[in-house]
């Protein structure tokens, strides 16, 4: 019987823990630090590990694994990957799923990623990098708008500004380079050409050599309905993404994913773990990489894992052994997840608001809808689990995810459950999946 450690506290980690707990060979799943949802899952318990943001300082994780006979570590978020947690685990003889610090630079540095794509002929938008605000503004004046400004480092999915006007672009430069809005992440910016098309998320498992494409998905980054408002970490997602036809899928594999695997292997740093390519698909069906992430996307993980019928534990085990299969088993029905965010998100987040409507939902026998927790916690750490109130503890609070016969049915099922949940300032989009629903209606 296996013991698994899942690192992270969001909806992605709740979904990974939930999926792993389905495996009959799993005894215990520890989630560090987890959230209220992971604490309530069968076989799961939250643990607090004293971790450091310093590179290679992952001793608490190593010590916990050694003291608790951990058979496998699955790393959810990007920050520990960028600081080398996989390297540290491997050095200690611990099996851990994710990319090394070198490979994680694909997400940790926009400049590294763009230079990598340029060198390896991976299709992406034209760009320039800047540390000087005046030089950046001069480049913007020359290029015109719309234009995209990105903080170079990790900014929790919020360091991207799509400026519709020159003035907005200048304001973004001032925020990042002059006013330090994103801290070290924004001390350097990448300015990119604005690409037209439809976005899609293409996520794979890679063992250094073999590639297993996960089910396709589409994320909704903008805060408000109609894909308007500021960029967020993601307000919802659905799977599959109809824009990724078989022809597009083949192009992504040959023009994007395989070149990453080949180039990393050639550099002496084989890519292992999840790889996320955020794509723009143009009218001709040609993919361009908007960004790489070195982990499973959030909120794409939730609908994708609702559809996964293979054992995630088996897939990771095979990946760690360098024996990933080329495909997995999927529910043919689509899934859709709606993120419920706290008051003020994405600029701020509200903590401590009591969430109503969850106990009945969490005790439901229906597999068609699952409420994954992200920014949640318990109000009273001393109370017994069933007496604790669940409260908000971050920007994105929940992801209500439904599996149904069509994207529209999944959207309506998720909305029905979302409508029963309430807390002060709760906000969510009612149009998640609108691109796919328009395609369904056209048929």
Automatic annotation (TrEMBL):
Its EC number is 6.3.4.13. Residues 114-321 form the ATP-grasp domain. Pfam families: GARS_A, GARS_C, GARS_N. Keywords: ATP-binding, Ligase, Magnesium, Manganese, Metal-binding, Nucleotide-binding, Purine biosynthesis. GO terms for molecular function: ATP binding; metal ion binding; phosphoribosylamine-glycine ligase activity. SMART domains: GARS_A (SM01209), GARS_C (SM01210). It is an enzyme of class 6 (ligase). PROSITE patterns: ATP_GRASP, GARS. It catalyses: 5-phospho-beta-D-ribosylamine + glycine + ATP = N(1)-(5-phospho-beta-D-ribosyl)glycinamide + ADP + phosphate + H(+). SUPFAM superfamilies: Glutathione synthetase ATP-binding domain-like, PreATP-grasp domain, Rudiment single hybrid motif. GO terms for biological process: 'de novo' IMP biosynthetic process; purine nucleobase biosynthetic process. Belongs to the GARS family. This is Phosphoribosylamine--glycine ligase.
């Amino acid at each position: 019987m296996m013991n698994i450690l899942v690192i992270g506290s969001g909806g992605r980690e709740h979904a990974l823990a939930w999926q792993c707990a389905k495996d009959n060979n799993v005894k215990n799943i520890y989630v560090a630090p987890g959230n209220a949802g992971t604490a309530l899952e069968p076989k799961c318990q939250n643990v607090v590990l004293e971790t450091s943001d310093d590179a290679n300082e992952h001793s608490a994780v190593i010590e916990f694994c050694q003291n608790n006979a951990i058979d496998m570590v699955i790393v959810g978020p990007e920050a520990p990957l960028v600081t080398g947690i996989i390297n540290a685990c491997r050095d200690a003889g611990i099996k851990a799923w994710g990319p090394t610090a070198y490979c994680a630079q694909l997400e940790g540095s926009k400049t590294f990623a763009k230079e990598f794509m340029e060198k390896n002929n991976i299709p992406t938008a034209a760009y320039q990098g800047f540390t000087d605000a005046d030089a950046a503004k001069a480049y913007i004046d020359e290029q015109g708008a719309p234009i995209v400004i990105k903080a170079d480092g990790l900014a929790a999915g919020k360091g991207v500004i799509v400026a519709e006007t020159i003035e907005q672009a200048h304001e973004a430069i001032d925020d990042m380079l002059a006013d330090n809005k994103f801290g070290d992440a924004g001390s350097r910016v990448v300015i990119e050409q604005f690409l037209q098309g439809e976005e899609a998320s293409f996520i794979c498992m890679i063992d250094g050599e073999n590639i297993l494409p996960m089910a396709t998905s589409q994320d909704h980054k903008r805060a408000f309905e109609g894909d308007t408002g500021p960029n967020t970490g993601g307000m919802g997602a659905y799977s599959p993404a109809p824009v990724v036809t078989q022809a597009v899928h083949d192009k992504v594999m040959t023009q994007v994913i395989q070149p990453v695997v080949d180039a990393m292997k050639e550099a002496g740093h084989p890519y292992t773990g999840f790889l996320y390519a955020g794509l723009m698909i143009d009218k001709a069906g040609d993919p361009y990489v908007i960004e790489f992430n070195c982990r499973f996307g959030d909120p794409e993980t939730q609908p994708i894992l609702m559809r996964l019928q293979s054992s995630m534990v088996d897939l990771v085990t095979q990946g760690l052994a360098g024996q990933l299969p080329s495909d997995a088993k999927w529910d043919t029905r689509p899934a859709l997840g709606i993120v419920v965010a706290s008051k003020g998100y994405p600029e701020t987040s509200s903590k401590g608001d009591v969430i109503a409507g969850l106990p009945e939902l969490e005790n439901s026998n229906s597999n068609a809808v699952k409420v994954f927790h992200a920014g949640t916690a318990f109000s009273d750490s001393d109370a017994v689990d069933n007496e604790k109130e669940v409260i908000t503890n971050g920007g994105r609070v929940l992801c209500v995810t439904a599996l149904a016969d069509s994207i529209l049915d999944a959207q309506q099922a998720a909305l029905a459950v979302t409508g029963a949940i309430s807390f002060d300032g709760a906000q969510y989009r009612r149009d998640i999946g609108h691109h796919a629903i328009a395609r369904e209606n056209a048929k």
